[in-house]
Write a structure and sequence with these properties.
- With about 500 residues, this protein is α/β, with parallel strands linked by helices.
- The protein has a ten-stranded mixed β-sheet, sandwiched between helices. Strands 3-2-1-6-5-4 form a six-stranded antiparallel β-sheet, covered by helices on one side.
- α1 packs across α3, α10 runs parallel beside α11 and α12 crosses α13.
- The longest helix has 28 residues.
- It starts with about 35 loop residues before the first helix and ends with a strand.
């Protein structure tokens, strides 16, 4: 196919979909295969369309100069393809309806100029995740829920071609020798590719998309992800240079919340970010962004997250932000938080603040087996100030479910556990009778912060704001009794 001839990166540097207009989509593949006479008729229609597409594509290759197409941007390339396809259909007297001609243009242009069937999903703003499990129907995530689309690749070769095109744009390769690869699209979307023989049923492609426009705390309030008081508490946490770890499961919204919290950072700070795949969207004027690098085909040249965090300490940062802590770099981040880099942040896969402590302990032990668990917990307690948990609920809604303050460490002996002070949690009020999904709920402020946190807020000029947040909410036990009801999506 023509697409296989175009494995070199885009010479313009803009990426294949940089200016791609939203195509008019005409779906020919059914979501579910019909049965009986209807299925046979449908297969005949689809088979005729595929034969027509193959014939038009073959004639197109004969008439088109590939170098000419490479010199054009996406819009100009579509115009050229539309003209030639029309000439081929007319000249060869093909029986093609107007709707089929538009579909041919969409699919052939997607194959030659972009990412094939993925193009119509990449321009859909509601799609947050694209999952391709071989040449069958593509699954997508919309609003936190999975569904099967009517879009699919023609065959495994077409899918493989798209996978190789994606990774080549960032200077990486994927083949049988290196069957697993992480990359990203020009818009920042994260891509994971797994090829046979690792993937048993054909190439597997997963794309996690990110909003181009930055979400704000105000938007999170409007969506019900957090209440006004909770958002105000997060503002105070960021402004008072607390060291924060955001915990949650896959797809729960950890990176989104990290972006939101980082937006509250002062523009005068020097911020150094360390990420496996660049996802953060910081707009402050003094930001240094670093990204890990995998080893080359000879197994050399790898730059790990641990290397980035260690190097960040030599760059005079005010804050260090780690996109995701998943290895021994956890120790270096804890060291940074303990040596004057207040206001540092990171995310961690864990299902609760308590589990985050165990997870960090195990990650550090992987790189430093001689360190005792008690010592690691003591270091964690002195380094991390706040743990924020995010979850994706059963109805697909993403919410901040817990905010906890790390009060301290019990010391050696039986009482060596880290003490957590819950500040806020999310309570589900009602559930849908059929699906069990949360329909209404509320964020509840359960405790006032510790005296240490209050003094810290005063030192950073946030004492009055914190006092206004807590005024009138103290219950009989000193906790925050008043709640605000939030309705789920």
């Amino acid at each position: 196919m023509f697409g296989k001839k175009r494995r070199d990166p885009d010479p313009t540097g803009k990426g294949p979909q940089a200016t791609s207009p939203a195509p008019e989509v005409v779906a020919f593949a059914p979501v579910e295969a019909p049965s009986g006479d209807e299925g046979a008729a449908r297969q005949g229609i689809d088979g005729r369309y595929r034969d027509t597409k193959a014939a038009v594509f073959a004639r197109l290759i004969e008439l088109l100069d590939p170098s000419e197409l490479l010199r054009l941007d996406v819009e100009q390339g579509r115009a050229l393809l539309a003209r030639i396809i029309s000439e081929v259909i007319t000249g060869d007297r093909m029986q093609v309806a107007a709707s089929e001609e538009r579909a041919l243009l969409n699919e052939i242009a997607d194959d030659m100029l972009g990412y094939g069937p993925l193009e119509r999903l990449l321009v859909d703003p509601d799609v947050s995740e694209i999952m391709v499990n071989g040449p069958g129907p593509i699954h997508v995530e919309r609003n936190g829920l999975l569904s099967r689309s009517a879009v699919q690749f023609d065959d495994a070769d077409q899918l493989l071609n798209v996978c190789q095109r994606i990774v080549s744009l960032v200077g990486r390769r994927v083949d049988e020798a290196s069957p697993i690869c992480d990359a990203r699209l020009q818009d920042g979307s994260r891509v994971n590719v797994v090829l046979p023989p690792i993937a048993l049923d054909g190439p597997v492609l997963t794309i996690r998309r990110f909003r181009r426009d930055r979400i704000t705390l105000k938007e999170m309030e409007q969506r019900g992800a957090i209440t006004g008081p909770g958002a105000e508490l997060l503002r105070i946490i960021a402004a008072t240079r607390c060291n924060v770890m955001i915990v949650g499961g896959t797809g729960s919204g950890k990176t989104t919340l990290l972006n939101v919290l980082s937006s509250q950072v002062s523009g005068g700070d020097r911020i150094v970010t360390c990420e496996d795949t660049a996802e953060l969207q910081l707009e402050q004027p003094h930001v240094v962004r670093m990204e890990t690098r995998p080893p080359n085909i000879e197994g050399e040249g790898e730059i790990s997250m641990r290397d980035l965090v260690r190097n960040a300490l030599r760059m005079r940062p005010d804050r260090i932000i780690v996109g995701e802590v998943r290895g021994p770099e956890a120790f270096d981040l804890m060291q940074a938080m303990n040596t004057g880099h207040d206001g540092s942040m990171g995310t961690l896969h864990a299902n609760s603040p308590e589990e985050a402590i165990t997870r960090m302990t195990s990650l550090i032990t992987m790189g430093y087996p001689s360190l005792q668990a008690e010592m690691i917990r003591a270091m964690f307690a002195s380094a991390v100030d706040i743990l924020v948990q995010v979850e994706r609920l059963r109805d697909g809604a993403r919410k901040v479910t817990r905010i906890a303050e790390v009060e301290g460490h019990g010391g050696a002996g039986a009482d060596d556990e880290i003490r957590l002070r819950p500040l806020m949690h999310y309570e589900v009020d009602t559930e849908d009778a059929q699906s069990g999904a949360a329909r209404t709920g509320r964020h509840v402020l359960v405790n006032a912060p510790s005296e240490v946190f209050i003094q810290r807020a005063r030192y950073h000029g946030e004492g009055d704001r914190l006092a206004r947040l807590l005024r009138g909410r103290a219950g009989p036990d000193g906790g925050v009794a008043r709640t605000e009801e939030m309705h789920g999506a």
